[in-house]
């Protein structure tokens, strides 16, 4: 499903996000006050505009209320990041996602109305730490409110050649299996009769504690 995005700030995070969205065939407007940065993305973004996001008139002219998502990726200038977020919400932008540099910056962005606040460096560090400590945990995504999504490789014979119903991970571990990847085939929301095989990758959702406990069980019991 194609959606519309406006990315304000073309630093490392903003430009990487832009390229990923364009690669996924999304419609993206790139915005930065630096003409050289905008020039770099003229032929990549759907639209590329030179504008100072701290000026309300400039934001109005860009018609950002018509976009599905507006992402504030302004770098180390926290004042500019906060002011831009305030202006966007005052204009009625539906979904404002703002990048924070630290905990205090994140708290302020949340207070001024950002719909979602992200701290990419911190989140990547946490995900790397989880993967280093848990070798079968291929990815770990924090969903907030103590819940997480974990992608785990099944390397434990005790968990293979059994159906989801037989494993009963919901009752035993408080988790729900939402995706199974088996020999290149992806099954979303697998039924209770779906078989788990050695080498499969399963995606589970539950509390951080339960995801970690389940991964440790798979890793330690042969």
UniProtKB/TrEMBL annotation:
Gene3D superfamilies the record matches: NAD(P)-binding Rossmann-like Domain, Regulator of K+ conductance, C-terminal domain
GO terms for MF: monoatomic cation transmembrane transporter activity
Domain of life: Bacteria
Domain RCK C-terminal: 135-220
Domain RCK N-terminal intervals: 2-118
One annotated GO biological process: potassium ion transport
PANTHER family linked to this entry: KTR SYSTEM POTASSIUM UPTAKE PROTEIN C, POTASSIUM CHANNEL PROTEIN 2-RELATED-RELATED
Name assigned to this protein: Trk family potassium (K+) transporter, NAD+ binding protein
Biological source species: Weissella minor
């Amino acid at each position: 499903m194609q959606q519309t995005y406006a990315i304000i700030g073309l630093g490392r995070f903003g430009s990487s996000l832009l390229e990923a969205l364009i690669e996924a065939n999304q419609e993206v407007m790139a915005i930065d006050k630096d003409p050289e940065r905008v020039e770099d993305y003229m032929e990549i973004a759907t639209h590329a505009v030179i504008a100072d996001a701290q000026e309300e008139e400039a934001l109005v002219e860009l018609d950002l209320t018509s976009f599905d998502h507006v992402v504030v990726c302004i770098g180390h200038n926290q004042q500019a990041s906060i002011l831009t977020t305030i202006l966007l919400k005052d204009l009625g932008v539906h979904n404002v996602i703002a990048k924070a540099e630290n905990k205090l910056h994140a708290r302020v962005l949340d207070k001024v109305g950002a719909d979602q606040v992200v701290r990419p460096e911190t989140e990547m560090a946490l995900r790397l730490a989880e993967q280093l400590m848990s070798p079968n945990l291929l990815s770990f995504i924090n969903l907030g409110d103590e819940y997480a999504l974990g992608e785990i490789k099944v390397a434990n014979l005790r968990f293979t050649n059994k159906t989801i119903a037989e494993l009963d991970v919901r009752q035993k571990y408080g988790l729900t299996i939402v995706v199974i990847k088996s020999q290149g085939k992806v099954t979303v929301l697998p039924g209770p009769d779906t078989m788990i095989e050695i080498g499969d990758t399963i995606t589970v959702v539950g509390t951080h504690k339960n995801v970690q406990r389940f991964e440790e069980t798979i890793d330690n019991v042969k």
